[in-house]
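Lecture 7, part 2: worked example. A protein chain together with AHM.
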Amino acid sequence: MEHPPKYTADNLTTIQSFILQEARRHPNASGEFSWLLSAIALAGKVIAAKIRRVHLDPVLDIGGDNVHGEQQKPMDLVANEIIIRCLGDRTDLGLLGSEEEAEPVQLRSAEEGGKYSVLFDPLDGSANLGLGVGVGTIFSILRHEQALDAEAPHLQIGRKQVAAGYILYGPSTVLVLSTGRGVHMFSLDPAVGAFVLVRSDLKIPSGGKTYSLNEANADSFGSGWGDWLSGCRRTGWRSRYIGSMVADVHRTLLEGGVFAYPRTARHPEGKLRLMYEANPMAFLIEQAGGRGESGTGPILNIRPTHVHQRVPVILGDPVGVDQLLNTLRR
Ligand code: AHM
Ligand code: MG
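Predicted complex, written out as structure tokens:
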């Protein structure tokens, strides 16, 4: 695998300069789109700072008891507020949809200048927050095409995303972004407070031998899955599952293999959400040369009917996903 040069003063590109360079290459790109992305990067920095203090700050509820007896606020709601506050003054924003909000909020109609919809999961994997395991923010940006459906302009297929990405709050804070021209990875340099480009044009390695799924549910995955899993075990695959989608997909993007959350008895439609989990991740994986499938076709072609709709998810390198789908079809 080829690695780019290490981050040095010679090639220091912050996410802001990267976004501006991208905008310059595309004369029609509006500066406001860059503003949206920089608001998300800012939110990522604020959330990362809060997460570093989850065990220290008595007002943050991470699922345990608060020995101080103060009223606690779940960290996923705090993350939600941070993102809304960071995006709030971006005047091109038409609609905001969050896992934490029952309905998307329409801020501006297209006539009033709302050009983009942003859908996000503010803190995915938050059940892992107190366990020292990576958690993340996932986001999807669509054009605010009100002409299509004035009531629900965000209900578009994932292929129409203009940008998607995630921020992984792990041993380091990493932002992975695609605006439809490859996948780029930035790491937060805490010394300077900026996301710095560390990998550009990431490609998922083909033929990885790691599967990542909740194997405890395997009996209810449906026919074919058992055969595929036994085949993997026979052929030297390894199993890695953190239970935080962002962390599991990040590893899959860097190392190849397959991440999946199929239908289960508990979640007959799949557990993961199409619009702010599966779509942005499938967009990134496809941009990196991989495949994002539901089992009945590409995730990015699914026409959504509801902002919180769930979908079975298979993401990974083309060889691994192909093998899996072939086994499921038998
Ligand atoms: P959340 O959005 O409530 O955090 O749930 C989504 C998470 C994903 O991060 C992860 O892939 C999945 O749920 C894990 O589910 P399970 O514990 O059933 O394996
Ligand atoms: Mg989630």
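The chain has a mean pLDDT of 90. The two ends are 33 Å apart (CA to CA). Keep this in mind for problem set question 3.
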